[in-house]
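Chain entry —
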Amino acid sequence: MQFFFHRALNQSGSLLIAAALIELFPGIALIDRRLTPQGFSVRFHSENFLSPQIEELVNRKLRQIIKEKREIRVSCMVPANAREFLRARGLGSRSFPDIRGQFAEVAQIGDFVDLSEGPHCAHSGELSIYKFLPLVSEGEGIYCLDGSFFPTKEAMKFFSKEMRSYAQTNALALGTARGFWHLVRDELVWEEKGCRLLDDFGQKCTEELFQGCRQIGMSRQMTLSAVRSFYQGELITQKNLCDPAPLVIKENFYSHFVLKEVAFSGSLEGEWISSLQRIRKTLNILAFEPSLLFQGRALLGQKALEKEWGSIEKEEGELSPLLFVTGKDRLGRRLSLFRGEWDRRGFVLRGHLGVLFALALERGTIDLLHN
């Protein structure tokens, strides 16, 4: 499940936190800097003991850098050159993530640089509203600092307020309380009641989202490309099937259902727009506040989609084009509900019904598709 939680702010904010830490304590080594569903996480190593009191020092340094409105510069490099460049700047101990595409993005704030996929803010002055958790010591000189950056004080207050009760109002807790499943060794074991509701919800979603499509069942080992020629010219929805088991168990809460829709002939753009319109209608019924986020250069059917959806958030890049249909959870976080890809042969829309089910459970709209 992919979250888009104030992504530009938290991506740039984690860069700001790392820069502040290194300026305060030049001997520390950055281990990991990443986005989380709640915002960001920065892990680092220090030869010297760091007490919780350093949070005030970090806060002062952050305020100083924010006031300076330091530019956040982003450069594109060939991946091998980017890694060598960063190692030369003292980041050789880091384990860098895999780099997709032909180029890697390197971001810089002040003297600090790091491999950092965008989007980013223009300068540190845009990062004035934040909240971070107490510094956590993981032992052996490793520390972790987590937190979130927000666009407004109201957004921060809303998130903080909802977060206090989220342990009782998230989908996992609600489903357990209603007897849909039990948590056993950190894995979900579904009760019959939950299985029936998920199957019913999945059927209703399929009827709404994929009208007029042929539904096929495939094992997880089978690829869709292997059956393309047989179904050429048709719209298809695909449900991945688990291997037979003596008990009916939902294999994984967030990936039990995977739907795909592909057009191989006819009006590619028309079918693409029509499918996204059905998705929007369904998500509006479920009160998910749907929106679009596009990564790439050229969006298929952009004008028609902007007319239907309003503004579309765009992240330009060298990667293959991707369109995400997002919705909001109780905390106001946007998460990916559907992901669309296309080429000259057709398009694919992937959606996880388990995620839709969890979000509908959280927002109290699980029964609205029945009406």
Q: What stands out?
A: Residues 7-24 form the longest helix (18 residues).
